[in-house]
Amino acid sequence: MRFPLTLRARLVLAFALVSVPALLLLSAVTFGYVQRAYVNIKAQEVVSQVMNNVQAHYRANGTLAGLHPQEIPVAPAGAPVQMGHPDSPPPYLVLDPQRRVVVGVTGYPAGTVLDGAVQPILVDGQTIAYLYATGTPPTLDAQSRALLTRSGWLLAGLVTAVAGLAVLSGALLARRFLAPLGVLQDGVHRLTLGQSPRLHGAMPDGEWGELFRAFGAMTAELERRRIADRQFGADIAHELGTPLAVLRGTVEAMQDGTLPATPERLGRLQIQLSHLLHLSGDLRLLWLADAGDLRLNCENVTVTALLTDVQDAFRSAASERGVILDGPAVILPTALLDPVRITQVLHNLVQNALNHTPSGGRVTLTADQPAPGTLRIVVRDTGRGMAPEQLERVFDRLYRADDSRAAPGSGLGLSIARSLVAAHGGTLTLSSAPGAGTEATVTLPLSSTGDHL
Hints:
It is rod-shaped, with a radius of gyration of 49 Å. It is built from eight helices and ten strands. The chain folds into three domains: 7-142; 206-290, Helix Hairpins (Orthogonal Bundle); 296-445, Heat Shock Protein 90. With 453 residues, it is of the alpha+beta class. The longest helix has 55 residues, at 7-61. It has helices at 7-61, 142-192, 206-255, 263-291, 303-321, 339-355, 388-393, 413-423, and strands spanning 92-95, 118-123, 126-133, 299-302, 324-326, 334-337, 362-368, 374-381, 427-432, 438-445. Helix 5 runs parallel beside helix 6 and helix 6 runs antiparallel to helix 8. Strands 5-7-8-10-9 form a five-stranded mixed sheet. A three-stranded antiparallel sheet has the order 1-3-2, covered by helices on one side. A two-stranded antiparallel sheet has the order 4-6. Keywords: Kinase, Membrane, Phosphoprotein, Transferase, Transmembrane, Transmembrane helix, Two-component regulatory system. It is an enzyme of class 2 (transferase). The chain crosses the membrane at residues 153-174. GO terms for molecular function: phosphorelay sensor kinase activity. It is found in: Membrane.
């Protein structure tokens, strides 16, 4: 059965998996070094004892003959003497000046000549013998073994304490490191409940700070959209409710005979019905775009001809308003796009420009290629322009500036235009300033990247 581990538990486990093996390895190396150093010290004690015994024997007898095995100890003073061990020789052998074994032991009979590294044993400056190391370590006494055992346990306890401290430090660091994550989790949980998240506390630094700022920007955008959607719903209810109320009142008055069904009144009803049908069509188009189900009938279109058709469609309206309408003066290549949808976009932009340009002004429709594979269409007017606060909301659905409320339309045109351009893989941007006119820029790829049939 698997138990899910939290991120904090995984970090603590990672600290433990890194620190504990490292501490164990360090302790093993340290204990091995201490043990070897201690054995070497004891070996030097044995060497000193052997040399002292051989020198004393030579001074007393004037020869090495008669040297007893007990005078060549296998352990420091106080340790048990175990000469003649059947499996291993003593740590050291005494050789005469001709490098012959003086006292024979297992594996080294007396008189055997040995080569190799030796230590001279001197008496009055004269070499009387050599000390030969067999490689067998000296026997440690019980006290020495107990000391090494206590040292090992002490080191093990120290390692355990340090490992526990390392794991505890890892837990504290993990808690401190993951504290911002808890704040974000609480914020996400509040978002799922439809509440506004609260990023309390100081803003962290580094990557956490970037994540907090991104989360804050996201929640601010979600809040803005939530408010906009609520306002959109209210505006839709108003936009639908007003003409429906007029229609209902007029029809009821005609039914009870209060108002005669004259052609003029029927014509006004037809206008209201047309407005409702147009509004419902715009809403359906926006819903399709939001759902990603907006389909384009793309084909290779001559851009110059398309722009000329748009200019011709508004030439009469511009003339009636006393506005000069200029068209493109360059020959542009073909582009893969939906001519009906792009024409709808340009009609909306040109109509808006005419609505906000006074008599004697100018509306210019131009196009160029700012980069290979990119088409840019610009609709520029010399109208009143927009204030920054209006420009920020111009793409909001059903938004209409105060000076444009008298103009026809539902206030969905720019939202629809931006959705149609985005479906082609392009962008629609507006730039404006009070008294400086407005410039709408449509940027499209010559080969459409949007969905199409």
